[in-house]
Amino acid sequence: MSKTKQNNGTPPTGHDWGERTVQSVTYRAPEHWETDAYEMGQRYGITDIDIEAFTRLHDGGIVYPDLVIHERSPERTETKKGTNVLIRGKKKGCGKSTLLKHLDRQFMRHNDSRIVWRGSPKRSEWLAFRKWTTLYLPANADVEARWMDEESDRPVSDVDVLEEIVRDVVYYDSVQDLLQTIGDRPEGTFNVVYPDPSFAGCEKVFEQTDTDYTDLPFTPRWEADEDNPQTQLIHWWYAFIVGRVYLGPFQDWVLTFDETGDITPSRSETKQDDQRTFDKVAAVRSALADSRRAFLTFVFATHHETQIFDEVRREFDWRIHMPDGSPNPTKDYKASIPLGFDTVPMHEDLMSGTDIGTALCYSEQGFTLFKWEDVPPEPGDEARFLQIRLSAPARRPDALAQDEDDSLDTVEFDDTVLKEWENQHYERLYVKQPGEGYVSITNQRIEEELVSPVEGLEFVDRLVEGDDALEVRMVDGDDNEIVVARIPDSSTAFKSASEVGGVGA
Questions:
Q1: What one-character DSSP code corresponds to residue 330?
Q2: What is the rounded CA–CA span in Å between residue 394 and residue 406?
Q3: Burial of 183 (0-12, 13-18, 19+ CB in 10 A)
Q4: Would you put residue 155 in left (φ > 0), alpha (ψ -120 to 50) or beta?
Q5: DSSP state, 46?
Q6: DSSP for 425-454?
Q7: pLDDT by residue (tens digit) across 201-233?
Q8: Does pTM top 0.70 for this prediction?
Q9: Phi, psi (deg, nearest 5) at residue 86
């Protein structure tokens, strides 16, 4: 069933893998250069899907090819536009991550799909494809990359230049910018995306789409306080999925999640909390239901289906049962039929004794046993993984400008280091994380010691009397002071210096 010419993993003469592939099948590369998907097949011996061979062997059952091969006007398959599949493998080592890479390469080869692989600081199974990878990172965060030991989960070495590890690194400003950028770049590409801890554009996505959910909170860690709790980073993907399905671009994309339980947690864990997690997951469920007509394919993997919210599970029309020693569902054992299916086409156990390398793909209409090839790590990556951590951007505050002609009648502050809080009785300026402390605007004094969130700058330990205002100041290593907040004087005369400057005075 192979159509791919093999060359035993030898890269193009005089060049490394991924160096000169054209990343697109819409035009020919110069001379003998081929596509990324072709090179991936050459490198790892991944065979192309032969629909005719599957049809002969499976008596017309082409559930697996139908999952992978998308035809807008189906001639060889039965499904057009996007598809979706939930892969279940209970045991570690049953091959889920390798299968994901195999499937993504097939999507690229047969549909010119743009792959979007979910980046996570805890894992980097995509590394085998790093020669062909475009890495997308948020511009609104500091990025720290390092090699980690796979066994001990401890750092091995820092990574200063990510471009030396992957083909390309692209920084995006918002969800909308990312969607447009991936859409503008070549098709048939492998893209790894890391979410943005600033959540830029997330709220606007829900305002721009026709979902029933608005005003959903997306609060960065460095802007959180007791009234606005921090949003978990996984919530960024809710906005990405909703934005891609309803705003586009409407091209053949595949969204690959190596671990799915945290983005759509089970019903018992999905609560209507202060982050409105239930509403966000419900929006994802609606997007999943509409994803096929938006040419978006979901490939989700999990250890246990019950880890995933039940309403989300109902939207998957394909399942892949991994060789983990467990029996596949059968018609006669109704308790084994997955949620969302009324029935399954199997009468017998096909999978209990199956070795790694063979899986069962099925829908309500049919099933196909299929094989996949191993995709081992690049030499040197066997015992390590790449950890990419995202944190608050290190923005230095600017001195507040002052108009000499106008007296101050409202609080002014630099929002890179301070945020305002108030209720009906009190008004305060809090230092943003990772700093600490706050100034009482009501009492016009430092109530809790101010700790700087910015390296190289420290707070002056008292409020300084200015023209018609009290000033919060910071000082650098050269004793240069900048004003980062002004609080209008609410009394006819300033308090004494000790009252103004002392913490809790």
A1: B
A2: 32
A3: middle
A4: beta
A5: P
A6: S-EEEEEPTTSEEEEETTTTEEEEEEE-SS
A7: 999 999 998 778 888 999 998 888 888 899 999
A8: yes
A9: -110, 120
Amino acid at 294: A
Strands 142-149 and 367-371, by their bridges, are unpaired
Gap between the Cα atoms of 98 and 150, Å rounded = 17
Using a 10 angstrom Cβ sphere, with 0-12 exposed, 13-18 middle and 19 or more buried, the burial of residue 19 is middle
Distances from the Cα of 334 to the Cα of 311, 316, 326, 345, angstroms: 19, 18, 16, 12
> For residues 216 and 202, what is the distance between their CA atoms, to the nearest angstrom?
9
Residue 468: which region, alpha, beta or left (left: phi > 0; alpha: psi -120 to 50)? left
- Dist. CA 51–CA 62, nearest whole Å: 7
Write out pLDDT tens, residues 409-454. Answer: 789 999 888 988 887 778 999 998 778 899 999 999 999 999 998 8
pLDDT digits (tens, 9 = 90+) for 86-126: 999 988 889 999 999 999 999 999 999 999 999 998 889 99
Please tell me the class of the 85-343+372-382 domain: alpha beta
Q: Where are the domains of the chain?
A: 49-80, 85-343+372-382, 412-501
Give the single-character DSSP code of 188: S
Cα separation, 78 vs 69, whole angstroms: 9
Question: Residue 434, preceding bond cis, omega within 30 degrees?
Answer: yes
